[in-house]
Amino acid sequence: MAEHKHGEMDITVQTKTFDGFIKFTTWFVVACIFLCIFLAVFAA
To answer: Looking at the record's lineage, which domain of life comes first (predicted)?
Structure first.
């Protein structure tokens, strides 16, 4: 079995995936807040 050496693994794909997830989550939360405000203002 190969020795594990800390910090040698290429994690660019994981980093891009995580950044995309954070960006999507941020925009989703902003959209939910906007929708809640919109419904509070214009609800009958």
So the answer is: Bacteria
Angle at 36 between CA 23 and CA 29, to 5 degrees: 10
What is the 8-class DSSP label of residue 3?
P
The answer to whether the predicted template modeling score (pTM) of the entire model surpasses 0.85 is no
SS3 of residue 8 by DSSP: coil
- How far the first Cα of the chain sits from its last, in Å, is 67
- Which pair of tokens denotes residue 5? 């050496």
Q: Quick: pLDDT tens for 8-24.
A: 889 999 999 999 999 99
User: How far apart are alpha carbons 9 and 15 in whole angstroms?
Assistant: 12
Residues 6 or more apart in contact with residue 19 via CB below 8 angstroms:
none
